[in-house]
Specification:
single chain; alpha/beta; Metallo-beta-lactamase, Chain A; 5 helices; binds zinc ion
């Protein structure tokens, strides 16, 4: 997600959004005891952990994925909590950051790690160089966006998204070898120019970043593209036989894979003007239309 303006519409941030927490699905997984109350950590499989920031509206999820020789942390959250300490408490393996894209809510802890892998675009290069100021992150830490106590160690006034050093710029088709486990990089622009999905063919796991999650998916900012989103979904719909477990970057750690195809078809019908009803609003100064499909929604620019 991640937007940057204080004119947010309540079709995006519903009042008292936190009353629906905890989401029941998390009860299916083993909760890992760890001292930092900002994070909820769950062991999803023997080698995949979800690091979930349920205290902030974005409900961002970072995933720690262990190979035999190395590990990756898929995104690093909001930069509110000390995610590096959580990771160090789980594994002794060398850990690289692998970003699904460079919106602020996915790169907040990047600066804490020595190795960072990001898909190469002008957008991500600018983001790595400058991070995001507190102003650019909008009302992220405002009362209506955060229900949990912020960590004691956080300097609230100084909070921002720090610049970070990229050690490897990724390209379409790159394969990351963790020893006994490989991750395929699949470029899926649409939500952002640098969005990727990540496929673990051996374990049939598919990380979708913000291309797909169980909430309104943002395809309205100036750097988004509905046409690219559709083309990206054409690619990942074709890959459905390769994965069983869809792990999105917000809200819940498991989604039904048939929804990928439904989202593809929904996006096409929006483009073609056959999608039917929508609600209207303004976000970031942009007129938006929101289409609801039960498990997910799509928010697009009214003017396309
Ligand atoms: Zn996000």
């Amino acid at each position: 997600m991640a937007y940057s303006d204080d004119t947010e519409s309540n079709i995006i941030v519903p009042t008292k959004w936190y009353e629906k927490l905890p989401r029941l699905v998390w009860g299916d997984y083993e909760k890992v005891d760890q001292p930092d109350q900002w994070f909820e950590v769950y062991k999803l499989t023997d080698t995949v952990y979800a690091i979930y920031e349920d205290g902030q509206f974005e409900e961002v999820i970072s995933y720690l994925v262990l190979g035999e020789e190395k590990a990756v942390i898929i995104d690093t959250g909001n930069g509110i909590g000390d995610i590096k300490a959580v990771v160090d408490g789980i594994t002794d393996l060398p850990v690289m950051v692998l970003n699904t894209h460079t919106h602020g809510d996915h790169i907040g802890g990047n600066h804490q790690f020595d190795e960072v892998l990001v898909y190469e675009t002008e957008f991500s290069k600018e983001r790595a160089k400058n991070g995001q100021t507190r102003e650019q992150m909008g009302h992220y830490l405002n009362e209506d966006m955060v229900w949990k106590a912020l960590p004691d160690y956080l300097d609230v006034e100084a909070w921002r998204i720090h610049p970070f050093n990229v050690t490897k710029w990724l390209k379409e088709g790159d394969i990351i070898d963790l020893g006994g486990r490989t991750l395929d990089v699949i470029h899926t622009p649409g939500h952002s120019p640098d969005s990727i999905c990540i496929l673990d063919r051996m374990n049939k796991i598919f990380w979708t970043g913000d291309s797909f999650y169980p909430a309104p998916i943002y395809i309205y900012a100036p750097t988004t593209s509905l046409d690219q989103f559709i083309e990206s979904f054409r690619k990942i719909t074709a890959l459905i036989p390769e994965y069983e477990w869809v792990m999105p970057s917000h809200n819940e750690p498991k989604m039904e894979k048939h929804l990928i195809k439904e989202c593809y078809e929904a996006a096409i019908s929006i483009r073609d003007g056959t999608a039917g009803e929508y609600s209207e609003g303004v976000a970031g100064g942009i007129q938006i239309h929101r289409y609801d499909y039960g498990r997910f929604s799509l928010i697009v620019r009214a003017e396309r």
